[in-house]
Amino acid sequence: MNIKQLSSISRLRKKKIIRKPPTEVHTYRCTKEELKQLQTLAKECGISLSRYVVETGLKHRPRMRLTKEEVDALNSLAIARTDLIKISNVLSKKTAEEKARFFKNEKFMRWWIDAVAGLIQHWYSIEENIATNVQTKSKEQL
């Protein structure tokens, strides 16, 4: 490689740095209780107090982070949804005659009922895990 080729390659490798505008320090007045409340709310959202004050001041309401139980329940919902989609896909590929034959077959119907019962039980366990104050808040509290 010659020098011209090397310089053109090095220009391609240079990263374009985009700088954020500099921030400024501003102060506000609040009581110690209000400060504690703000710090707690910011921590629940997983952001700094400064970021929380800016976002709420601009009418954005940050969401609380999900608890481990809620994350597990959400993952379970995704798995259950996948199972339902698989069942739907299998049935959609069958002809009307095949579907009629399946549903007349006692062995298949028992399997089907057991599978659906398992999914329903799974949904109930998910429902039990998603019971937090986030979902039970009234409109006035939001």
What does this protein look like?
The chain has 142 residues and is mainly α. The protein is 65% helix and 0% strand. Helix 2 (32-45) packs across helix 3 (49-57). The chain starts with a helix and ends in a 13-residue tail after the last helix.
Sum up the structure in keywords:
142 residues; 6 helices; mainly alpha; elongated
Task: Kindly name the structural category.
Answer: mainly alpha
Count the helices. How many?
Answer: 6
* Shape assignment: elongated
Estimated share of beta-strand residues: under 5%
Q: Sheet with the most strands?
A: none
- Find the count of extended strands (DSSP E, 2+ residues): 0
In round numbers, the mean pLDDT is: 76
What's the structural blueprint in terms of helices and strands?
Elements: H1 3-13, H2 32-45, H3 49-57, H4 68-92, H5 96-104, H6 106-129
Helix pairs in contact: 2-3, 4-6
